[in-house]
Automatic annotation (TrEMBL):
Protein name: Putative 4-hydroxy-4-methyl-2-oxoglutarate aldolase
Record-listed substrate binding positions: 95-98, 117
MF (Gene Ontology): metal ion binding
Native source organism of the sequence: Ramlibacter humi
Cofactor(s) needed for function: a divalent metal cation; Mg(2+)
Record keywords, A-Z: Magnesium, Metal-binding
Residues binding Mg(2+), per UniProt: 118
């Protein structure tokens, strides 16, 4: 088989994927140092959609989906197809037929820096898809690409086996090696944010750090406060 297709890579263990699914993409992005969030152009087709799993990367030429078909045939249950479609919106790279195959195979979702179609049918399927818009044009199936290699998707480097968490806010990708260490930080952040929201609801709306930050930024002089 061509070196353009890499079959073997380590995936995030299923137990860690299950734990990560408890968290919003925003929480994981924050504890990951505000890194790993794909460009906001890649968004859920419907806000309720959420996908969590391990990345299977696909690199295609604009408007051609040959390698996506190959990736679907190779994918394992729990994988999320992450496709660098070069931010092209002139033709859809996937539609109902391919999404139905993904769902049938247990693929956890699709993230694509490109367009899809049949969006109402995908909505009815309730299959999680995150894309850069839609277009009724169909794709070609002529141009080779790569599967399993690192890609750039939405401005973020994605490797096969990395963790993907996608929800109404967007898509976050976390390096496989970092997932286990970040989960306790995510749990702590959820608790801390809940406590802060409870304080705000009791009337404590002031941010304790704000005056110091404004002084550091030169907005307030030393000794001044809002």
């Amino acid at each position: 088989m061509s070196n353009d297709i890499l079959r073997d890579f380590d995936r995030v263990p299923a137990a860690l994927v299950k734990q990560a699914a408890e968290f919003q993409a925003a929480i994981l992005a924050d504890v990951n140092g505000r890194r790993g969030a794909l460009h906001g152009r890649i968004a859920a087709l419907r806000p309720r959609m959420k996908a969590v799993g391990t990345a299977l990367t696909v690199d295609v030429r604009p408007g051609d989906n040959l390698m996506i078909h190959a990736a679907i045939a190779m994918a394992k249950p729990g994988d999320v197809l992450v496709i660098d479609g070069k931010a092209d919106q002139t033709a859809a790279l996937m539609g109902t037929i391919m999404m139905t195959a993904c769902q049938q195979l247990g693929i956890a979702g699709v993230v694509i820096d490109g367009a899809v179609r049949d969006t109402l049918e995908i909505d009815e399927m309730d299959f999680p898809v995150f894309a850069f818009g839609s277009n009724p044009n169909g794709p070609t199936k002529n141009v080779p690409g790569r599967i399993g290699h690192p890609i750039a998707c939405g401005g973020v480097t994605v490797r096969s086996g990395d963790l993907v968490v996608a929800d109404a806010d967007g898509v976050v990708v976390i390096e496989r090696e970092r997932v286990e260490s970040l989960l306790p930080l995510a749990r702590k952040k959820v608790v801390d944010e809940a406590a802060r929201i409870a304080e705000i609801k009791k009337g404590n709306t002031s941010a304790s750090w704000l005056d110091a930050a404004l002084r550091t930024a030169g907005v307030l002089k030393q000794g001044e406060s809002l």
